[in-house]
Amino acid sequence: MNNFFKLSFIAIATIVTVAIGCKKSFLETSNPNQMTEDKFWKTEADVKSAIAAVYSPMRLPLSGYWGAFRGYQDINALGDDVLTIPGGEPATMQVAFFINDAKNGDIQDIFAKLYSSIYRANLVIENTAKANLDAALTKSYVAEAKFLRGLSYFILASNFGDVPLKTGVAQSSGDAFIAASPVAEVYQHAIKDFSESATDLPLTRTAGDKGRVTQGAALAFLGKAYLYIKDYPNAETTLAKLKTAPFNYDLIDNYEDNFTDKNEFNKESVLEWVYGPINSPYSPWNEESGGNAMYNYRPQLTGSPASGGWFKYIPSQFLVKEFKKELRPGGSDTKFDKRMYATLMWKYSDFGETDATWYDNKTFDDLWAAAATSIDRFEPAYKTFPEGRFLNKKFTSAWRNVGGADNYWSATPSTANVEAMRFAEVLLLHAEAALLNNHPDKALESINRIRQRAGLVTRAATDFPATADMMAEIQHQKLLELYFEQNRWNDLKRWYPAAAALKTYLSSNLKQGADKVETRHYIFPIPAAELQTNNKLTQNPLWK
Question: Which of 79, 113, 305, 479 has the lowest CB atom count within 10 Å?
Fold first, then answer.
């Protein structure tokens, strides 16, 4: 595992102590062994450990926004591309079925973790200069903290709407407890942080610092933020920068390598969270303690019971139908889109191809039989499988073909990194921005790069007589390319701004809970625990 990210375990206790290290009265004496603010921020090692701690809340293997039990599980469960197995964690089921409220524990945890990152980022921004480092190095650390603060606010804006903007370390309770700012201001602050950080972040990182943010990551999320606020000219211009020098991003040949540990930090990687063999794989529950494991636990949640997985999701029939819409040209080595074989598992012979096996040569029938009890929990409407029987492969460890590979108690728990931004997403964001900025030719260039890697024929402008036709292609490709990568729900909200239209669309795709969708479900409520703590904060009007 990257040495930089091991520093976060060292830094957590230090940062908390620095924040509360002042005396309450002259009668209190200092503990000479306790790290306080006057002892910290003296060296680059102090700053480096502090910045490592800013990453931590977002990438914790279970409860981080990209961790298995929070954003990965809940944000994906909102989409129409997966079905959530009934009987799982109540908090996740509430989110998946649109029956959550302000007391939902998962939502509270996501909110709190993001503000932990913001608080720590503010500490770095305000204190790095005290270490008297080289001016360029100081700027780089501050830029890194600004990016992570901007990323936290971008996630908060897209998921919660109006939230408090905390741009400095609170000096009193009056500073700590503030009212929410309008979502437009929150997005603008994220954009400011992304823009400023892009100026001072390095283009690349050395081997020991892989996984730390770069200028490319800042520009990618800056472009994404512009797209979310419908500033299409700036979105197109910003994202187009990543397609040319000095950047050398590209799509890797094997799509599946983005989700294994075979080819990490490849040319498609814009930002990935580092996971690896640190501490016991059986102790992921200690959050940020020194003994916390940092393996990738997504396979445990996603994988088949036949491989030791908890089997919480299966792909929706809507997703399968979309994958089957376009076959590869005659004479190709596969019948379907190449991505389908990396994303899903099925009985190939049901569709005229030679069968494959997984997990120490288990057949698809073996995998389906092991999952049958869980599948039987579905309501009848979800058990007809008109498109056929399919299971998830993406984010499992099926690619290893080792028995029990999805079980983190096994001999081979996953150490695969998690992609937070891939160049493939940059291309699709660029295509959307370019199209909506009246540059369909530029959009088509990006679309065709995605299609070529998938083994599909390139398209011509004449294939899309209207803007709506090309937009439908972008939406289709984004569904297939970014399946299960925490994007689908935010895309749907942008593409269907009227709740009634989204409700109809989701219902047509047999999305669980679609009948419950209202305008308020476009955001999460401010958590009840936060409202109880902050007396200047009120609930979003949609949730009152």
Answer: 305
Q: What's CA 363's distance to the chain center, in Å?
A: 31
The SS3 assignment for 380 reads helix
Nearest of 450, 452, 471, 469 to residue 232 by alpha carbon: 471
- For the chain, the 3-state helix, strand and coil shares in percent, each to the nearest 5, are 50, 5, 45
- What is the model's pTM? 0.95
| 408-430 pLDDT, tens digit each | 888 778 999 999 999 999 999 99
Structural domain of 358 = 297-416
Both tokens of residue 378? 């579905």
CB 250 within 8 A of CB 268: yes
The mean predicted confidence, pLDDT, of the chain is 93
Number of domains in the chain: 2
Where does residue 358 rank: exposed (0-12), middle (13-18), buried (19+ CB within 10 A)?
A: buried
Whether 51 and 122 have beta carbons less than 8 Å apart is answered as: no
311 and 177 within one domain? no
Dump strand ranges (E) for 254-318.
269-273, 313-315
Query: What H or E segment, with its residue span, contains residue 54?
Result: helix 44-59
Is 185 exposed, middle or buried (CB count within 10 Å of its CB: 0-12, 13-18, 19+)?
middle
Q: How far apart are CA 198 and CA 213, in angstroms?
A: 10
* Peptide bond before residue 233 is cis, with ω within 30 degrees of 0: no
**Alpha helices (H) along 437-526:** 440-453, 467-481, 488-495, 499-508
Q: Say if residue 385 is in the same domain as residue 527.
A: no
379-386: Cβ within 8 A, 24+ apart: 381/510, 382/83, 382/510, 382/512, 385/317, 386/317
Contact 482, 489 (CB under 8 A): no
Per residue in 19-76, pLDDT tens?
A: 433 333 333 334 444 556 778 999 999 999 999 999 999 999 999 999 999 999 999 9
